[in-house]
Amino acid sequence: MNVPPGEPxxxxxxxxxxxxxxxxxxxxxxxxxxxxxxxxxxxxxxxLAFRILGQRQDAEDVTQQTFLSVLEHLDSxxxxxxxATWVLRIATNHALKLLRKRRGLPTVPLEAPxxxxxxxxxxxxxxxxxxxxxxxxxxAQRAEVRRLLAEALDELDVKYRLVFLLRDVEGCPTRETAxxxxxSEAAIKVRLLRARLQLRERxxxxxxxxxxxxxxxxxxx
Length: 221
Description:
Blueprint: H1 12-27, H2 31-53, H3 56-72, H4 83-102, H5 115-120, H6 136-140, H7 143-155, H8 158-169, H9 174-181, H10 185-207
């Protein structure tokens, strides 16, 4: 049985407890424990930063900054969330700061574009409806499909891309994703839906079987 993204999986609880134990040891001066934590999360932090920023050097800088912040703020972890959530939240904040600096934007909270805007705007209608030529499992193994997904993610507005990355790629629960981004759970759900719809439209145009295409009708009368 497949486990929905963000839901606990077998072994997750044990790993989360092991992470907490490493952090407690690191907090008491065990540098080997801290190095173990870095080893546990380094690739995840780099991957998330790279998907947000799209540049290897920037992602490497964010990864370094993230673990420096983790080291400096070991005492601030209150164990109300998993260590993974805490580390990824720090990484996300550093990546967003760099993204805003690169774009010449002021450092403002991610929630500044009001979540109400997402609720008020109509959901996008699919313009290209067709069956995919192959099943999702087969498609996921193809480098071309992974490239298409990366390009589609790059085209998403950052507020949608972040939610998709945290929920569907990293598997963070809705509540923890909301905590990371300073948003309500309702806003996370709406943004995730919008991200999925936009990604599916983009991928269906590339992977859909033209012979099965249905021309949509948007007549609601």
